[in-house]
Amino acid sequence: MPLVVNGQTIDDPVIEQEFSAIKAHYESLGSISCCERDDEFRGYARDNITFRALLTQEAQRTIPEPGAEEVTRAFDKLKDEHGGGDQFYASVGLSPEQDGLIQRDLSVNLQVESLRDSACQSLPAPTEAECRAYYEGNIEQFSDEDEVRASHIFKSVRETEKREAIFKALCEVRQRLVDGADFTELAREHSDKPAEEIDLGFFKRGELMDEFEIVTFSMKEGEVSPVFSTPHGFHLAKVTERKAGQPKPFESVRADIETELTAQRKDAKLQELVDELKKTAKIEYIEPEDGFGDHDHE
Predict the structure, then answer these.
(1) CA separation (Å) from 115 to 41, 102, 119, 285?
(2) How far does Cα 236 stand from its chain's mean position?
(3) Any stretches that span the bilayer, and where are they (predicted)?
């Protein structure tokens, strides 16, 4: 369903690319399995694209186009960041014959960057009190690495057509665990791993698969995970013990906190700007020809 923002059409492939990136992010956090939040993520995708479109349109309306020298410097910097021209063109899938297109995009990006800077230039710097409050409210972010001990049930997925059946079967196992069944007993009955590999012992981040660590380190002691997938198959995990890391001194992380709070303020300021632009914008979600018409938001 194409999106039209003030007459600018954003076609389905762009929306689907944004949707895929959002879904991949949530999958990496272990907060979803399969497709139960796809409609929600497509809404996020449209919101993100609308945000960028309105910001870009406002930048092109209010910010003068950068000069050729500024665009050239930005282009040279971009190629340097990729390790040179050849590596740049290879990584973006373009060729030197398309330099004009690339430079036009860079010109617009510079206008957007200038608009962002202008909108945020008067924002106050975070105070020490604000930094300390953030530190104390998010102390887990500023601690040495935690350790987790977990057990798991693993089912290999070798045949694509059996994927849904295996997922449903593990969901049923999970419900039995939530209802109080013994994890080790069910693991011996259902896991494709030998009994000695049910208990994984203690581990830190970076020692196991990313997907597995993202799930287990987000869990409380005694908690059973949702069914989640890795490249090897489906898993259920139970955290049996946790060892908390010790907090780092405030002064050693203060600069990072200032950077984070500044970024949050900039994001909020830009959201305010876009919310104002939405009040006069014409935003349409175009239904397919056999749909029920357009959805306009003005």
Answers:
(1) 28, 20, 6, 27
(2) 23
(3) none
pLDDT at 296: 55
| CA 173 from centroid of its chain's CA atoms | 29
Domains and CATH numbers, the chain: 3-125+257-297 (1.10.4030), 145-243 (3.10.50.40)
Residue 39 in 3-state DSSP? helix
pLDDT in tens, 224-280: 999 999 888 999 999 999 988 889 999 999 999 999 999 999 999 999 999 999 999
Q: Per this entry, what is the length of the chain? A: 298
Here the tokens at position 230 are 């890795």
Give phi and psi for 234, each to the nearest 5: -100, 150
Note if the pTM is more than 0.70.
Answer: no
- For residue 239, give the nearest of 149, 125, 116 by alpha carbon: 149
Q: φ and ψ at 280, to 5 degrees?
A: -115, 5
